[in-house]
Write a structure and sequence with these properties.
The protein is mainly α. The protein has one domain. It has three helices and no strands.
Length: 83
Amino acid sequence: MGMHSVAAWSSEGAAAFGGTVLLAARLAGEWLGHGPDYLFIVLVFGGIWLLGRAARVWRGRLKYQQLRCCPPGRRRGAASDSP
């Protein structure tokens, strides 16, 4: 949840830094527990980070489309739009 949130709601630099810190913390925990799943952790958490970045891009595109369709100050169905 944290990895997705960092990627989805932060700027690119902050998202990269936050993702690196979270991944390093998870890998350190795996190392301290003598676990063998380093590649799995990188793939799962890297994938979650990428999904968060994709959600940010999607949200930006949606906002752009909404602004292009209905500029601020002009609403659909307003009295001034009717004939």
